[in-house]
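Notes to self after the Tuesday call (sharing in case useful).
The group wants a holo model before anyone commits to mutagenesis around the pocket. I volunteered. Ligand is NAP. Logging inputs and output together so the record is complete.
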Amino acid sequence: MGIFSVLALPLLLLGISGIIYIYQSVRWLLSKSAVQNKVVVITDAISGLGKECSRVFHAGGARLVLCGRNWEKLEALYDALISVTDPSTTYAPKLILLDITDISCIGDVAKEILNCYGCVDVLINNASMKVKGAVQSISLELDKKIMDANYFGPITLTKAILPNMISRRTGQIVLINSIQGKIGIPFRAAYAASKHAAVGFFDCLRAEMEEFDISVSTVNPTFICSYHRQAAPGNWEASIWK
Ligand SMILES: NC(=O)c1ccc[n+]([C@@H]2O[C@H](COP(=O)([O-])OP(=O)(O)OC[C@H]3O[C@@H](n4cnc5c(N)ncnc54)[C@H](OP(=O)(O)O)[C@@H]3O)[C@@H](O)[C@H]2O)c1
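Result:
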């Protein structure tokens, strides 16, 4: 009886400190962003969806590499991101020019991307070209250009980044695709065909990458009404942060 009363207080204190420790650890884990310090590459970061992804990842503390084919728009996005976040908890994004249809340059762009931080944790293949028209009114040249933008471009970039992920046995590849990669509707043949091709490629890649612990996701949205579409004239970058 005597020994229990001597040990009761230390045991109680030990139990309470254990509970406090677990509580604080869970709080710390919940507050930690999943993308903090991760190197995240977004192609066509200046599109409606690309800008929103950039904002979310930047605020989460990711080390962003933002790609786009228009330098002024990339700089405007950079300024908008920097102006709304705390510089002590975020990284200044790196900017890289990338025209996704320029297949012969993508290898060099991939080297530039890898040179930024030495690795890529998350690659978001967002860049894409849209076209609408009857099959007989779309030239074969345009069909091929759409295929370059929506299929050959993303797969070329992915293939160039993949060896880095495989060697590190970690990574996440995301394809922003479209519901039109799953179904066909009138007047979208070129776009839908390229999006179907991309889904096929990335579905196979997912199966191949499983053994390297690299995850491959395809996102197939329907219509997205982004702030980009509703931007006030002359104030497009500010309008996305509301
Ligand atoms: N919005 C939707 O409803 C919707 C639905 C389903 C899927 N998606 C997918 O979501 C992704 C983003 O689309 P979004 O609607 O956000 O785009 P968006 O706001 O309509 O902007 C189109 C973008 O495409 C860029 N672009 C065109 N040709 C390019 C090229 N050769 N290289 C690099 N960039 C090029 C344009 O750049 P410039 O400004 O330089 O011309 C512009 O930033 C795409 O993969 C799209 O297929 C969108």
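Two things stood out.
The chain is about 55% helix and 10% strand.
The two ends are 66 Å apart (CA to CA).
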